[in-house]
Amino acid sequence: MRKSRVTRLLIGGLITGALVTAGPAVSSAVTPKTGAPGLTRLVLPAPSGPYAVGTVALRLVDHSRPDPWVPAQPYRELMVSAFYPASDAGAYPVAPQMSPAAAKHFDESLGTPVHEGWGIPPGKVPWGATLTHSHANAPVQAGRHPVVLYSPGLGDPRTLGTTLAEDLASRGYVVVTIDHTYDASEVEFPGGRVEPFKVPVDGDILSTLKKLVSVRVADTRFVLDRLPTLPNGLGAALDPGKIGMFGQSAGGFTALQTMHDDPRVAAAADLDGTLGFDQDDGGPGLSPLAEDGLRRPFLLMGSQASDHHTVRSWEALWSNSDGPKLDLHLRGSKHHSYTDMESLVPQLSKIGLPSEAAYEDIGWIDPARAVATERAYLAAFFDRHLRGRDDGLLDGPSPRYPEVSFVR
Question: Cβ(403)–Cβ(301) under 8 Å?
Answer without folding.
Answer: no
